[in-house]
Amino acid sequence: YGPALLGSSSSLLDSLDQGKFGEGELGILQAQQDDPQSVIDLPFTIDKGLQSEDVFKFVSKLASKANVSISEAAQKEATEIIQNLWSIYSRFEGVWFTFQLAFDGKGQVSVRSPFLEFDDFGVKRVPELQDLYANRKRDENSAKAEDGGLFYIKLPQGGNVGSFGYGAGNAMATMDGLALAGGRPANFLDGGGGANKQNARLAIETLHRDDNVKAIFVNTFGGITQTDVVAEGVIEAVKENNITKPIVVRILGTGAERAKQLLSESDIDFTINDDFKEAARCAVERANQ
Description:
Blueprint: E1 4-7, H1 15-20, H2 27-34, E2 40-43, H3 52-65, H4 72-91, E3 94-103, E4 109-118, H5 130-134, H6 140-147, E5 151-154, E6 161-164, H7 168-180, E7 187-190, H8 197-209, E8 215-222, H9 227-241, E9 247-253, H10 256-264, E10 271-272, H11 276-287
Parallel strand pairs: 6-8, 8-9, 9-10
Antiparallel strand pairs: 1-2, 3-4, 5-7
Helix pairs in contact: 3-4, 6-8, 7-11, 8-9, 9-10
């Protein structure tokens, strides 16, 4: 698996995808899944990079797909633009770039709706990104979560179930479980390295502050993680913030028995279930009540 250049005519994307395109969403990937023939795909390797002859052919195929007639000069200019964007992507640790190329019929090419996403973890290694990162747009809730050490992403078209786990894999699996149960997660939330009362509390407070969240699903498996400490943070958040949203908890592993005891004896109406599928189903059900 390596990088790839994907292209399609905006007229071939449905209205939802066109609305997303250029905003960092994955509409063009959805189009590729729904209709593979609508998308031109140019995979390549990091060591080789984007070769001008390959990009030139890519632009030609893209123009043909869009039923657009372009001159050789415009084709060369589009090729150069794409290669320059790739240089930025590879040099500054890009993650996802989207943009539109517009041809005016006179040989001129312009870039519209550019969206350039870079790896947050690359900021310390790439000085040129530091000012951009420091001044990035953030809503207040996301800022509090990030500044507190959480990895939190509110989904732009998220659902009504707040999702929380420790470890990126666990957090993503928690979201998948909610989707498979017929629900829609409102967010991605990884408690980060080193579970403690403070980040567990902050996680619950973050989800509570999201008005779209109607129920919260806490899914934690303790290996190194002390799940009883997580439980203490969850309880503390609920009591000190008077949280009334339903909270479904699945806790297994290190400290789980004590964690469940703490939750049960907290005088808070937690729903505790060890079965992942059943816990996810219950969270979705509570959110939709």
